[in-house]
Design a protein that fits this description.
Blueprint: E1 6-8, H1 18-26, E2 31-37, H2 49-55, E3 62-68, H3 72-81, E4 86-90, H4 98-107, E5 111-116, E6 134-138, H5 154-167, E7 172-176, H6 184-190, E8 194-197, H7 199-203, H8 209-220
Parallel strand pairs: 1-8, 2-3, 3-4, 4-5, 5-6, 6-7, 7-8
The structure holds D-xylitol-5-phosphate (DX5) and zinc ion (ZN).
D-xylitol-5-phosphate is lined by residues 9, 11-12, 33, 35, 66, 140, 142-147, 176-179, 196-201.
Family: Belongs to the ribulose-phosphate 3-epimerase family. AlsE subfamily.
InterPro entries: Aldolase_TIM, AlluloseP_3_epimer_AlsE, Ribul_P_3_epim-like, RibuloseP-bd_barrel
Catalytic activity: D-allulose 6-phosphate = keto-D-fructose 6-phosphate
Length: 221
C-alpha cells in the first residue's frame, strides 16, 4: 500500500506509555507534531520546547512545532535555540514580521511553516507563500483535541495544490484537526501531503500503540 505521511499529534498521546509510543512511531513516521500554546491565542496549554528536547532523546525524526501563541517572535527564538526542525507560525500573528521570522528560521538551517486557522483564507499568506516550507490547514478550531470537523476547510488544500503546481512553489501541505475515520472519504478527495493525527484518529483506537496504528491504517484504506 502507498506510504501515508502521518505526523502524530503528541499532545494527544497517552503519557503513561510515552516511551513505547515514541519508539514505535519512530519506525513509522517522518515527523512528530508538537502543539505549543500560550493560554492567550487559544484557551489552553499543551507541550513546550522542553518537551521537544526530552522527546529528542528517544527519536531523531523531525519535530514540527505548531505555534498557537500571540507572540510568535519569542517562541520562534526558543525553538531555534533547540534546533526544532520545522517551526509553524500562526498566519494571524505574523503580520509585519513575517519575512524577518521566516528568514531567521531559514538562517538557522530550519524549515518555516505557517498555520491557517479556519477563519483565515489562503489569500492571507500570499505575500510570502513562495518562501514557505509548509502550510498547515486547520480543520478544527485550534486549542483542543476532539473539536468539530470543518470539512469545507479542505477546499484550501485544493487551492494550495493548484497554486503550487501553477507557480512552482515548494511548500508541503498539511492538515490538522479531527483527521479520523469519519472524515477519511472527504479527506481522500483532496489528499494533503501530511496528515496530523491525534486522539480520535490514532491514540484512542486501542490500548497499545501497535494495535492503534494497525487500526488506523485499516481505516485509512
Ligand atoms: C488542535 C491541535 C491538533 C489536535 C489534533 O488544536 O492543533 O494537533 O491535537 O487532535 P485531534 O486530531 O484529536 O483533533
Ligand atoms: Zn496542532
Amino acid at each position: 500500500s502507498e506510504h501515508i505521511n502521518i505526523s502524530p499529534s503528541l499532545m494527544t498521546m497517552d503519557l503513561d506509555q510515552f516511551k513505547e509510543q515514541i519508539h514505535f512511531l519512530n519506525d513509522h513516521v517522518d515527523s512528530f507534531h508538537i502543539d505549543i500554546m500560550d493560554g492567550h491565542f487559544v484557551p489552553n496549554l499543551s507541550l513546550s520546547p522542553w518537551f521537544i528536547e526530552q522527546t529528542r532523546k528517544l527519536t531523531n525524526k523531525e519535530m514540527s512545532a505548531h505555534l498557537m501563541v500571540t507572540d510568535p517572535a519569542f517562541w520562534v527564538q526558543q525553538l531555534i535555540n533547540i534546533k526544532c526542525e520545522i517551526i509553524c507560525m500562526p498566519a494571524e500573528k505574523i503580520n509585519g514580521i513575517a519575512f524577518r521570522l521566516i528568514d531567521q528560521i531559514h538562517s538557522a538551517g530550519l524549515k518555516a511553516g505557517v498555520v491557517l486557522n479556519p477563519e483565515t483564507p489562503v489569500q492571507e499568506i500570499m505575500p510570502y507563500i513562495d518562501i514557505l516550507d509548509k502550510v498547515t490547514i486547520m480543520t478544527v478550531d485550534p486549542g483542543f483535541a476532539g473539536q468539530r470537523f470543518l470539512g469545507h476547510m479542505l477546499e484550501k488544500i485544493t487551492e494550495l495544490k493548484k497554486l503550487r503546481e501553477e507557480q512552482g512553489y515548494h511548500y508541503l501541505i498539511e492538515m490538522d484537526g479531527s483527521t479520523n475515520k469519519e472524515h477519511w472519504k472527504m479527506i481522500h478527495e483532496v489528499k494533503p501531503d501530511i496528515y496530523v493525527i491525534g486522539r480520535s484518529g490514532l491514540f484512542n483506537l486501542a490500548d497499545d500503540i501497535q494495535s492503534s496504528w494497525q487500526k488506523m491504517v485499516a481505516e485509512f484504506e
